[in-house]
Task: inverse folding
């Protein structure tokens, strides 16, 4: 029986990136729909649920994408609420690549650090990738300093993460100019830049002044990079007195996680892949 992936995208056009990855992951048939909202998705989900018998439903799966992560999360909730009993299909949510990118960034850093003894600073921490990287790190024992241009947004995001990980140690912080930021970051062993394209948080000479820093991860592939001096191709490259990862250096693992997650959707009909589940798939890849 053919493996069918139903792509539900919240944008005007379904993501070509997600379509290509689905094909490369071995999907036999890809049905792509755009402009999907909680209000118009139910019929599409019913179509996935009721066209195959219970024992065949693992051959159908749903992928939720689009550029707006909040809309993707709302869609995921509506989709899973539509299922009942054994009549369900597996679902993956990776709007804007948020879950796979955050997982790859944290897993890359974890190859060099013990998170129980790590203070991690996330620049752009209220964005889709930054928030998920903070969630993953906090859940694994790291002390997380979450930076945003808006202190109130940083505080709100920290509260949301604290609800998921009640014992987590988080500190909301307001972004400062490069030199002042470098001084504030002293004591952090991990730095992740997850801001908007073209925004540089800190200059290379200031970054090098952070004596405690062991790993720096920049997830911005559009010049200028978020962390000055880090190139997009860097992968555990030692410079600026720490190990550096650029967007493409992390991107190789992100792509492996994305493909593996799509493949694993078809192992059962009742799986839901979001932040933690996708991170777990990445962990398994690194161990294999």
Result:
């Amino acid at each position: 029986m053919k493996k069918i992936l139903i792509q539900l995208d919240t944008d005007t056009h379904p993501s070509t990136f997600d379509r290509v990855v689905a094909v490369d992951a071995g999907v036999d048939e890809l049905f792509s729909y755009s402009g999907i909202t909680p209000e118009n998705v139910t019929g599409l989900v019913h179509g996935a649920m009721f066209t195959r018998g219970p024992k065949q439903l693992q051959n159908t799966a749903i992928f939720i994408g689009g550029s707006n992560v909040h809309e993707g999360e709302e869609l995921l909730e509506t989709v899973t609420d539509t299922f009942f009993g054994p009549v369900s299909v597996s679902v993956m949510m990776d709007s804007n690549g948020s879950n796979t990118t955050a997982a790859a960034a944290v897993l890359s850093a974890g190859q060099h650090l013990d998170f129980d003894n790590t203070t991690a600073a996330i620049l752009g921490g209220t964005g889709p990738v930054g928030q998920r990287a903070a969630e993953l790190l906090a859940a694994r024992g790291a002390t997380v300093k979450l930076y945003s241009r808006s202190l109130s947004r940083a505080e709100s995001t920290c509260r949301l993460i604290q609800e998921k990980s009640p014992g987590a140690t988080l500190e909301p912080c307001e972004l400062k100019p490069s030199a002042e930021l470098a001084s504030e970051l002293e004591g952090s062993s991990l730095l992740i830049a997850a801001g908007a394209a073209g925004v540089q948080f800190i200059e290379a000479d200031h970054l090098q002044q952070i004596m405690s820093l062991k790993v720096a991860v920049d997830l911005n592939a559009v010049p200028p990079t978020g962390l000055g001096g880090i190139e997009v191709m860097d992968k555990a490259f030692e410079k600026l007195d720490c190990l550096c990862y650029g967007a493409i250096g992390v991107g190789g693992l992100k792509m492996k996680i994305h493909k593996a997650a799509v493949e694993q959707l078809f192992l059962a009909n009742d799986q839901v892949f979001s932040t933690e589940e996708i991170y777990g798939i990445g962990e398994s890849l690194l161990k294999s």
Q: What stands out?
A: The longest strand covers residues 4-9. Residues 58 and 116 are 38 Å apart (CA to CA). The chain has two domains: 4-97+255-287, 101-250.
